[in-house]
Amino acid sequence: MNLKDMREDFYDKVSTAIAKQYDTIVIEDLNVQGMMQNHHIAKSLSDVSFYSFKQKLLYKAEKYGKNIIEIGRFDPSSKICSRCGNIKHDLKLSDRIYHCDVCGLTIDRDHNASKNIRKIGLIKVGSVRSELTPVEIATSGLYGIYPYRQMSVVEAGSSDALAER
Known about the structure:
Layout: H1 3-21, E1 24-28, H2 32-36, H3 42-48, H4 50-63, E2 67-71, E3 97-99, E4 106-108, H5 109-124, H6 134-140, H7 153-156, H8 159-164
Parallel strand pairs: 1-2
Antiparallel strand pairs: 3-4
Helix pairs in contact: 1-4
């Protein structure tokens, strides 16, 4: 058995296990072509074959009658604190540990992103209700998702806008 066949077998088994165990599966639409431009990770990304795994997962979810929710690639999954919703604008790809300057949460960057992906996906389908109406969420950013989140100075435009809030 060659490496390609072993990878396909592994994806088949993992996608089946996920589809059998969970009723709702949330995935993130990744900009793989853009990520391939980074020569440091391009080889590893091409070896992983995200597209093949996603196709198997979609097929298995449909086969077992499960829901797949795909959040957009521009939904903030990595730069937002999964506890308080603070946005860390200066987060770099090389930062593997997420540390929130507001609430003090220290967590693996990918674990933090996975919590946000789940939360955003479940809100999109209405399984988790926010504290605001859909109109308020649409016009105010992430405040319905993270009820304790405060606007940053950059988002507010000035410190005067923060004082008015």
